[in-house]
Amino acid sequence: MFTPNGKTELPFEIPLKPKGNKPLYETYHGVFVNIQYYLRSEMKRSILNKDLQSQAEFIVENKVTSKKGEVKSVEFSITPESLENVKERAKVPKFLVKGSLDSAQCCITKPFTGELEVVHSDKPIKSIELQLVRIETCGCAEGYSKDATEIQNIQIAEGDVCRGVRIPIYMIFPRLFTCPTLATANFKIEFEVNVVIVLQDDHLITENFPIKVIRC
């Protein structure tokens, strides 16, 4: 078919079906794991003209397959005794931070929410941050490689916050860089949230919370 000079638009639609028993996973842009889908078009031209090609990525989101179960809040208290991987615990300043996460099972289209409260701290606070971390596990010749990388870091408080004041936790899951928690025979994609308290002397206090991301 020959097209006239100028701009010609050709509407089309294609049923998106998996090949064989291989499922179509949701689009995900990671560091060691990437799930991407592309549509490639090619225009054949005469012998004296070079063929034209173009490629565009499209996003795949699966239908809602799981209902969000009963929402259970996660209560937490952060103290020097609750910290892990601390070499010199005696040098850690005394503090108490408590709060709650609304749920550890998170709908990807809704914000991650909760609250925290600084009850007391021997040293002044510089800032409080919320980190979203991806955990990617990949199969390799030696077995499995597991790597954690930061997706985003949000500052939820700045300065030496008032004691006894509830600070809201609110974070949107970024599109493309997050997907529903996924486990296959060859790789896994999991997520965690870190609450990071930075003291004035740049001492870091970190508490880790594994979460399950679903589409609901």
Task: Summarize the structure in words.
There is one protein chain. By secondary structure, the chain is mainly beta. The protein has no helices and 14 strands. It has strands spanning 28-29, 34-35, 37-43, 52-58, 74-78, 95-101, 105-107, 112-121, 125-140, 143-158, 166-171, 182-183, 187-199, 204-214. The strands form four sheets. Strands 7, 9, 10, 12, 13 and 14 form a six-stranded mixed β-sheet that branches. It has a four-stranded antiparallel β-sheet with strand order 5-6-8-11, with no helix packed on it. The protein has a two-stranded antiparallel ribbon with strand order 1-2. This is Down syndrome critical region protein 3.
In short:
InterPro entries: Arrestin-like_C, Vps26-related. This protein has about 220 residues and is mainly beta.
As residue ranges, the low-confidence spans are none
**How many β-strand stretches?**
14
Helix percentage: under 10%
Helix/sheet category: mainly beta
Distance between the termini: 45 Å
Order of helices and strands: EEEEEEEEEEEEEE
Let me know the largest β-sheet. Answer: 6 strands, mixed
- Radius of gyration from the alpha-carbon trace, in angstroms: 24 Å
State mean pLDDT (0 to 100 scale): 90
Helical stretch count? 0
Shape: elongated
Strand percentage: over 45%
GO biological process, one term: intracellular protein transport
Family: Belongs to the VPS26 family.
Organism: Desmophyllum pertusum
Protein name: Down syndrome critical region protein 3
